[in-house]
Design a protein that fits this description.
2 domains; four-stranded mixed beta sheet; Aspartate Aminotransferase, domain 1; alpha/beta; 430 residues; seven-stranded mixed beta sheet; Aspartate Aminotransferase, domain 2
Length: 430
């Protein structure tokens, strides 16, 4: 695999950006080598600056559910940008995308568009505090909710803890308003409410935790969170930046049949452009300015180009059989890899839900908490990642990240990828 141009570009980038990148995981630190500089993508394939082509299972970390540069999205973006890219004023496209979402999603009545998942979650937390008049939030170790201060908190010692900051620059006062407990631990949640009765504004969780492995939770645990929140007049916040519109049009809320009080979205609703959103009942959303006293604003919120891209993409997602086809392809892909690993007696398993999958080097039947992931297993992913790159398959450069199957991944391509992955697995685990 040629790397000369990517190496030269990375050396140049290090003069401009911290670590040479604009987002840490792109730096290839956990897999070694030089990050690849991508110049174009079409369908399920990408091409780097050296001309190497790859089948892409990263899909820009999830939003490209139709694949790269799908014609409906490209046409919508081209048509819209010709009339202007930003106005800082309302456009009809905002109404159109909102109606498309709300008329097909029974879990929210009103929403607000923002520019990223991080911004959506940050504001949803503020909204929960403003609506309840409470300060503390409860989150789970192993769930990532963007890089806002109060959510960059990892678990400390003990069953229930305020935790420790995961980043320099986060004041202790912020950390002290964030309670951290382990996933799939009802007793820890119960104890938190006993200790901080009438102080917890919301529980925030990725209903499908997919930023630290794919830590699939039992429906009964999510239902328990719903019940304890209702009992204590605490809001339940589903962070569906990854799972929203990926498991189905109504995301994890629809998949599990559990109604949260607030939902955050991102990624897919922009068709590949920067976008996010948060939504709730009309009553809760009435607290948002200018109707209420919870302030949030953004010049690029509801950007017309992003709205047009989102309309085009979500229209495709609503076509009959779209999610069923995606689920079927992914299930067959995952099943074949798991059967191969079992036959070869490899400590390897592919966990999946919908069109999301995760390669785990483990013998465990389920992995539901962050502390069940063996850090030593990442050495196998490092080897696998390198072998796959050499053979034209691109995964996100971290063993803790999930992969995605898009509409553009044909059964033929997936079958070819399975054979390559099987070959590389045996090499990586020697």
């Amino acid at each position: 695999m040629k790397k000369d141009k990517s190496i030269a570009l990375f050396e140049k980038a290090k003069k401009y950006f911290p670590g040479g990148v604009n987002s840490p995981v792109r730096a290839f630190r956990s897999v070694g080598g030089t990050p690849l500089f991508i110049r174009k993508g079409k369908g399920c394939k990408i091409e780097d600056e050296d001309g190497n082509q790859f089948v892409d299972f990263c899909c820009s970390w999830g939003p490209l559910i139709l694949g790269h540069a799908p014609e409906p999205v490209v046409a919508a973006v081209r048509k819209t940008v010709e009339d202007g890219s930003s106005f800082g004023a309302p456009t009809a496209l905002e109404n159109e995308l909102a109606e498309l979402i709300l008329s097909n999603n029974k879990f929210i009545e009103k929403l607000r568009f923002v520019s990223s998942g991080t911004e959506a979650v940050m504001t949803a937390i503020r909204l929960a505090r403003g609506f309840t008049g409470r300060k503390k939030i409860l989150k789970f170790e192993g769930c990532y909710h963007g890089h806002s201060d109060s959510l960059l908190v990892k678990a400390g010692s003990g069953l229930v803890t305020f935790g420790n900051t995961s980043s320099a620059g986060v004041p202790e006062a912020f950390v002290n308003e964030t309670i951290v407990v382990g996933l799939n631990n009802r007793e820890a949640v119960k104890e938190a409410f006993q200790q901080f009765k009438n102080e917890i504004a919301c529980i925030i969780i990725e209903p499908v935790p997919a930023n630290n492995g794919l830590l699939l939770q039992d429906k009964s645990f999510l239902q328990y969170l719903r019940e304890i929140c209702t009992e204590h007049k605490t809001l339940l916040l589903f962070d569906e930046v990854i799972s929203g519109f990926r498991l189905g049009f109504t995301g994890a809320a629809g998949y599990y049949g559990i109604a949260p009080d607030i939902i955050t979205y991102g990624k897919i609703i922009g068709g590949g452009l920067p976008v996010g959103a948060y939504g709730a009942s009309s009553e809760i959303m009435s607290k948002i300015s200018p109707d209420g006293d919870v302030y949030q604003a953004g010049t690029l919120s509801g950007n017309p180009v992003a709205m047009a891209a989102g309309i085009a993409q979500l229209t495709e997602c609503l076509k009959p059989g779209f999610y069923e086809s995606l689920q079927s392809k992914t299930s067959e892909f995952v099943k074949s890899l798991n059967e191969f690993a079992e036959t070869r007696r490899l400590s390897f398993k592919v966990f999946s839900i919908g069109s999301i999958f995760w390669f785990a080097f483990t013998d465990m039947v389920t992995v539901q908490a962050a502390d069940q992931i063996d850090p030593e297993s990442m050495k196998y992913f490092r080897k696998l990642h390198a072998e796959l790159l050499e053979r034209g398959i691109y995964l996100g450069p971290s063993g803790y990240e999930v992969g995605f199957v898009s509409q553009a991944h044909s059964t033929e391509i997936l079958n070819g990828c399975k054979r390559v992955i099987m070959e590389c697995l045996e090499i990586a685990m020697q």
